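User: Show me an example of a complex going from sequences to structure tokens.

Assistant: Sure. Here are the input components:
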Amino acid sequence: MHVRDGAGALAERLSRLIGPRASVARAVLEQHGRSESYHPALAPDIVVFPETTAEVAEIVRLCAAAGMPIVPYGAGTSLEGNAAAAAGGACIDFARMNKVLAVHGSDMDVVVQPGITRKQLNAQLRDTGLFFPIDPGADASIGGMTSTRASGTMAVRYGTMKDNVLALEVVLADGRVIRTAKRARKSAAGYDLTRLFVGAEGTLGVITEITLKLHPVPPAISAATCSFPGLHAAVDAAIALIQSAIPAARIELVDEVMMRGINAYSGLGYAEAPTLFLEFHGTEAAVAEQAQIAEAITTEHGGHGFAWAKAAEDRSRLWHARDNTLYAGLGLRPGARAVITDVCVPISRLAECLTETRRDADSHGFVAPIVGHVGDGNFHMLILIDPDDASELAGAKALQGRMVARAVAMDGTCTGEHGVGLGKIDYLTDELGEAVAVMRSVKAALDPSGLLNPGKIFAGADP
Amino acid sequence: MHVRDGAGALAERLSRLIGPRASVARAVLEQHGRSESYHPALAPDIVVFPETTAEVAEIVRLCAAAGMPIVPYGAGTSLEGNAAAAAGGACIDFARMNKVLAVHGSDMDVVVQPGITRKQLNAQLRDTGLFFPIDPGADASIGGMTSTRASGTMAVRYGTMKDNVLALEVVLADGRVIRTAKRARKSAAGYDLTRLFVGAEGTLGVITEITLKLHPVPPAISAATCSFPGLHAAVDAAIALIQSAIPAARIELVDEVMMRGINAYSGLGYAEAPTLFLEFHGTEAAVAEQAQIAEAITTEHGGHGFAWAKAAEDRSRLWHARDNTLYAGLGLRPGARAVITDVCVPISRLAECLTETRRDADSHGFVAPIVGHVGDGNFHMLILIDPDDASELAGAKALQGRMVARAVAMDGTCTGEHGVGLGKIDYLTDELGEAVAVMRSVKAALDPSGLLNPGKIFAGADP
């Protein structure tokens, strides 16, 4: 752990500000350095638990005066070390800023604090007829999802965080507080600061309030699984589904390796072949029609073993199988740890990218199940490694590097939804070249001392 | 017109670069200073017509070296003086960069040059089964629409330019060329530079290539009109439609004053009452169901005189009436010029904002028809004035100022889709306060000499 000069004095000032809600207890520091990723634990020097924007602004001012890095922290579920304290400093844990501040039913929006998780939010929306659809799998905090530009299974229908954040309140590097937008559904009023902070991983400011779009709960939902003779056929069916203009809410692909894991983990008997998990939202009649069209399209592309689920408990069982792929995947190699990575390519290249990646992993002897938000061209690989074998980690990183290079060569991106964090810094430059210099200019303009989540997105940003 | 030192020498260098495609002919300069707005004509010192990104980069480098402002220009249809040469300089007219560079059918995207107009683009897409839905009324260029974050009638279903631009090629203030993103459908790779340049009105860089999302042409379309006893009832019906989860493609409101203009202009016999224009896209069965639900909802809210149009020619007649509101509005006061302005508010406040604005205009003796993209809470007022009467212009600006203040007080924005340009500079600060300082920091970082479209978005940005 990196302990910096003045940390003691700062800790005292922070304690004076928020009393027992500042902690230097070793267990607390260590817990905030860990995440669900393969990246090494990097603990902060102090953890603070503010309750108001004013407290956050004062924390940021104190840290700025002391030259102390500031790392915002949500639910700790990010996958690229996005909230690791790479240069030590003060971790701002938003656990106590987890309230719904306002629900605007007619406007279909909600104002929340960053610490609330997506499941907590949807639980509180239960009686409104509205819901927040973005579902990255983990029960991530809304602040973290905003900062990593999260998306997940329903992005193909409802978009990503970029599309669902209406406005932000942000504490800047010098403690000023701004609102990026009003609550209008759209605006052409100047630069899109909202989208600038969405996905910035806390490197440009600390988000303290988020206004989100909500969507009407569909009157009817229907889900299905369908297996395919190969990855190509499954992807072709997905492309045809999207082009058919029927508004699928989820088009998920699980490869044959992961299907084996799901069967074992959940005691199920799915065919161990590439499988599409589908969902449709709409009126009773619309969902029935969509289901019929989808069955025809998938059948035409060699799909078989169609299984529809309309009742809530049947759908829940089906998605439970899909949602637990992290644990199901880990079960394929007991004791293993997963290097989880993602890329996103134009869907016309997806089958090729998937097949080559599958072959690459297999030929290097890795157990590496794949799941994909195939409607967006986005897929994840869980590379299972022995945590005590450095050569396996090195091999997994090399495999990831080839997967990213393949995706970028196909006009794709090095990360579809996990963010850059610590793990994709070099790949960002491979992908975007000189544009990264523009990002650095923006970073220098908004955080001239480099204290906001240093070491993320860019190399050498540690002050 | 502002003629700056060195303009002659620069003109010579530009002529050497692109020959007869650089012009200082008075008629050409004057034409590029005018727009469809009420703002005074502000002509550039020279107009250049590049054909390649390399030429644009070289033009920008030459202008930067000469300290000459740079103003990108598309179809000249913007409404806030966004492309006026407020400080003179070189106007880059993209008329000769109007090609479709690539259509990716399976990926449902297209790569275009900025000079192509939306109608030209859709004409070229005719055989693909895909279309580009953003429709701001005018046949604007895609570059201009990107730079003003345009939206229009179909935003309620398909989003705005912000949601439909996948990637940009941009020439920076120093002539460097970047790509903001690859062609993946989504990405979490660093700052969202795409969205930073969308809506920046050419003040951060010159856009030379745009990758757009396309959408499948719906197999069936159905449109309808329905009139209401008052604005409140029409807006309440629109809110209920949106909350019903049926995916309306357009929900347009035309007020009683504009309906009078439409009847006179197109020789029609609509009821001269607040009227909703609706459209639904989907399969035959889905559209039929949506139409039925919509009729039930609007009837419940006092709607009557329902008229459905399914055949293409009937729909075309219906939307022709709606689309010609500028000319229909002008017809209400022969010889008048229109001060066209827009705001956007949370839809729960829309009826109140509309009613108060209607009353304000009427009580000040203005003929000022209103049309709105009511599904988004966005509406336009055309304030008809005598172009030779300065007091009428002053009165119209004051009326606009009260409309904006009302919208901002209701948590809305000073411009839903026209941009800031020359006309909304002060209002931007009224709306967003300290956030405008952050925009200025970004501007200073990317255009330190202030040569990119100076005088727009911010006051005092003229070098």
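The lines above are the inputs; the final block is the predicted structure for all two components together. Chain A touches chain B through 98 residues (CB under 8 Å).
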